[in-house]
Each structure stands twice: as C-alpha cells, then as structure tokens.
C-alpha cells in the first residue's frame, strides 16, 4: 500500500517537474516546490500567503506544492478558456476532495455524467417562478432578523444574518412551515458549517492530512464525522417522512398552487434525473452550505460597507421608500430596486464570498495558451484578481455601485465579473441569493441606520480576509444598528 502511494506521488512529481518553467511563477525548491510558502497556514493567513505569490499578475502563473501543479488564472480571457473548455470542466481533485468530507457527492464536487444528472434534478428548484412564490417567506424571516437586532451598541452581524440565511433556506429546502423540523435542522447544519473551515484549511495546507485515514484519526476528523452522522440520520428520516407525505397528498398536480421545497422537487424527479436518498441528502447539505456561506458572508460585508458609506446607505433607503413605501415586499418591488442591486453587485465584485474556483484537466493532457499542460493540472480561477483588474475596472479599489450602470458596463469582458462563476457550471443559486439580499436590506434599512464601529477599518478594498469556505472578516463584522426616527 505504501509503495503504491509513493509510486503515485513520484509519477505526479515527475510530471509537475517536467512542466516547470512553462509559465512564470515564484521560485521552487526541489521536491517541495512552493510548499514552504503554505506550511502551517491557517484560514487566517492563507489568503495573504497566496497574494504574496500572485503579486497582482494578470499572467498565468505557476505554483507547485510537492507533486501538485497549479496554474493561477486571473485574466478574463484565460478564465473564459478554462470555464468553457471541454477539457477543463472537472472540479480540481486536490481542492475539492476535501469538500467531500462535508458535501459528499453534492453538485459542488461531482463531475461528468453524475454532475449532469444531479444538475438536471436540482435546476427546477431555482426557477424564477418558483422563487417568486417564496417572497412572503423571505419577508417573514427578514422580520425575524429585525426582532433579533441589538441596538445602540457594537454588535456582530454574523449570528443574526446566519440565522436568517439558515431559516430561509431550511424553509425553502425542507419545509415551508415553521415547525420542529426546521428548528431541529438548524443547529445540526450550524455545527457542520462551523467545523468545515477548520477542516478545509487544515487539510489543504498540511500534506500529512491529505490522507483521509490520517485526518480521520485526528480530534477534528472525529468531530466532523460525528456531526455528519447526525445530519445524515436526520436527513434520511426527514426524506422518508416527506415521501410519505407526498404520497398521501396526491402528487404534484394537487400541490400546483403550493410552494414545493427543494426536497419535494427532488422526490418527484423521474428517470435519469431521479436521485437516491443518499444523493438527495448530499445535495441538501451542499446547497445549505453554499447558500448560507454566500448570504452570511455577503450580509457582513454589505452592512460593514453601508456603515462606512452613509451616502450609499441613504440612496438605498430612498430607493426602498420610493419603490416599496409601506407595502409588503413583492417580487415586482425587488425588480425595481435597481440601485440596491448595483450596491450588492459591487460588494460581490470587491469582496466576493468565494474568491477562487478550481478546475482540472483530469481526463487528458491539454494545450493552454499554446503550451502543453499535463493531465491532472489544477487551474485556480482567481476571481479576486479578475474583479480588481484595472484593465477592466476603472479605479478597481474604489467602492462604486454605479460602475454597473448599463452605459458603464458596455464592452466590459463578461468573464471580468463572476461572483457566481460562469459557463456550464455556473451557480444555480445566484437569483436566490439576490432575492434574499435585496429583501433583507429593504427590510432593515427603513428601520435602522447602520453606523460604523471604531475598529480602524475604513477602506473596503483593504479589509483583512479569513479564508475558510468563504472569505470573511476575521473575528466577524461589527456595526451599530441605530433605530430611525418614525
């Protein structure tokens, strides 16, 4: 067994070495490559370590960690080649295999035929017509956020926004009604999502724990497995209960006027799109993770930026008052909150929740930019870099929502902006996230002014980043919610 592992590593190492100097990059050491640059890295400093190697280069740069060859792709033209290329559609095994601890075989890690089948089964849950039916639900959860706000003193945004995101997704994925199922599921999912950033950073940066067996022997590995077992037990029992309820309820036709959840849609999938209970469970956990990380992280950045930029906050507030007034939020209102959407888009540009994607040519060697790239090379898509590229963004470090006005967006490279990825494997949840973010801002700002705290952080482009699943503020975002005079 050990011999096979060593041989496999040696083959990968020789391939990587033969490809050195194809693209520019930082100097490498024999055997180690650039591994020392990441030795002992944690979620708190791994982003800074990467930025020191990248050096704001728009060129493809090459990094090697032991036998793993990574091409960092930052130029939108090159990003488009990777994300649309038929040879580079698979998720990079070295990066995404660690997601399998949590997401098993969710869409985030699947490739090939399996990915296509699961994508087909889950896509109907994110159609606009269905999401619009959930507006009342989002309104209810936004009202819950208001009730939990602490006023007049610096407070963490995260616990409240995380609960908003979790409750919203639990009700759209599991059960529309607020009942024991939703309340029981939330702490289980919370445990997993709080464990995962530690798991991912530990395994990515420490080659000793690339082995599933060795990681499983650690305290963190055992905690992760125990938390997953609880989620799976609840999930499979819930799926079986849902299946019985659907059978008793007369099927899809009778529920045409109701609001089917993600699990309802998966249970009603047929033919090649039909999923097993375990596969449904993997998709639920995968979507839970993606939705909650995206929303919770983005809400933190949004409230932090609005606390610093009262000019932007005042424009959002005025737009909400003009469009919504005293009415309950409706999908038609959201479509008319154009400046609010530009503010969200600008936050996603300057501080994308997921600053990197990774693809690989796992099936065969390929030619990229005229150079032979060996099989199993990882292509690290540098979203963070593309979003700050001065060739595509005027004053890229400035927070300027109006850069997304139609007249200023004309001619901009499509792949210069990809907070939800692009190409065949783009994120299904982009519309869902925009609805949730607009709803919360339009609910909170008429009730509370968001004021800054004295933490010395005043420039969004220079905010420190903690990279776990998503890129967050270390220690969490703090602001002051001040009640508005009525």
UniProtKB/TrEMBL annotation:
Instruction: Spell out the InterPro entries in the cross-references.
Output: Cyt_P450, Cyt_P450_CS, Cyt_P450_E_grp-I, Cyt_P450_sf, Cytochrome_P450_Monoox
Q: Which cofactor does it need?
A: heme
EC numbers for this chain: 1.14.14.14
Xref: Gene3D superfamilies: Cytochrome P450
Q: What do the Gene Ontology cellular component annotations say?
A: membrane
Main EC class of this protein?
A: oxidoreductase
- Oxidoreductase as a keyword? yes
Keyword list (alphabetical) reads:
Heme, Iron, Membrane, Metal-binding, Monooxygenase, Oxidoreductase
Specify the domain of life of the species encoding this protein: Eukaryota
The places in or outside the cell where this protein is found are: Membrane
**PANTHER family, per the entry:** AROMATASE, CYTOCHROME P450 FAMILY 4
Protein family membership: Belongs to the cytochrome P450 family.
User: Know the name of this protein?
Assistant: aromatase
């Amino acid at each position: 067994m050990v011999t096979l592992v060593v041989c496999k590593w040696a083959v990968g190492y020789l391939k990587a070495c033969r490809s050195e100097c194809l693209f520019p990059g930082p100097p490498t050491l024999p055997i180690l490559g650039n591994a020392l640059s990441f030795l002992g890295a944690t979620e708190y400093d791994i982003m800074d370590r990467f930025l020191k190697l990248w050096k704001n280069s728009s060129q493809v740069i090459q990094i090697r960690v032991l036998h793993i060859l990574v091409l960092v792709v930052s130029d939108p033209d090159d990003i488009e080649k990777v994300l649309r290329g038929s040879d580079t559609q698979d998720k990079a095994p070295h990066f995404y295999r660690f997601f399998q601890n949590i997401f098993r075989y969710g869409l985030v890690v699947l490739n090939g035929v399996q990915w296509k089948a699961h994508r087909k089964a889950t896509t109907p849950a994110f159609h606009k017509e269905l999401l619009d039916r959930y507006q009342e639900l989002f309104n209810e959860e936004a009202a819950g956020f208001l009730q939990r706000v602490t006023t007049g003193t610096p407070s963490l945004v995260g616990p409240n926004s995380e609960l908003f995101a979790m409750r919203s997704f639990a009700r759209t994925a599991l059960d529309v009604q607020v009942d024991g199922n939703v309340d029981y599921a939330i702490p289980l999912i919370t445990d997993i999502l709080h464990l995962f950033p530690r798991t991912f950073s530990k395994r990515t940066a420490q080659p000793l724990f690339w082995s599933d067996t060795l990681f499983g022997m650690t305290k963190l590995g055992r905690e992760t497995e125990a938390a997953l077992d609880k989620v799976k037990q609840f999930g499979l029992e819930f799926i079986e209960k849902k299946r019985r309820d659907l059978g008793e309820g007369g099927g899809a036709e009778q529920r045409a006027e109701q609001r089917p959840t993600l699990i309802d849609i998966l249970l009603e999938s047929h033919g090649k799109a039909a999923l097993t209970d375990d596969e449904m469970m993997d998709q639920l956990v995968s979507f839970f993770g993606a939705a909650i990380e995206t929303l919770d992280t983005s809400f933190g950045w949004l409230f932090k930026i609005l606390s610093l930029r009262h000019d932007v906050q005042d424009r959002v507030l005025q737009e909400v008052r003009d469009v919504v007034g005293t009415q309950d939020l409706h999908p038609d209102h959201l479509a008319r909150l154009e400046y609010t959407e530009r503010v969200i888009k600008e936050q996603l540009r300057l501080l994308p929740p997921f600053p990197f994607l990774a693809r690989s040519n796992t099936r065969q060697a390929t030619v990229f930019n005229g150079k032979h790239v060996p099989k199993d090379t990882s292509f690290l898509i540098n979203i963070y870099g593309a979003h700050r590229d001065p060739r595509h963004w005027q004053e890229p470090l400035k927070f300027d929502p109006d850069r997304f006005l139609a007249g200023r967006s004309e001619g901009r490279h499509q792949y210069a902006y990809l907070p939800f990825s692009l190409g065949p494997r783009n994120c299904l949840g982009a519309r869902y996230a925009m609805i949730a973010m607009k709803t919360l801002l339009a609910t909170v700002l008429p009730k509370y002014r968001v004021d800054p705290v004295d933490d010395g952080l005043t420039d969004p482009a220079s905010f420190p980043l903690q990279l776990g699943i998503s890129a967050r503020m270390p220690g969490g975002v703090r602001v002051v919610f001040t009640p508005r005079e009525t």
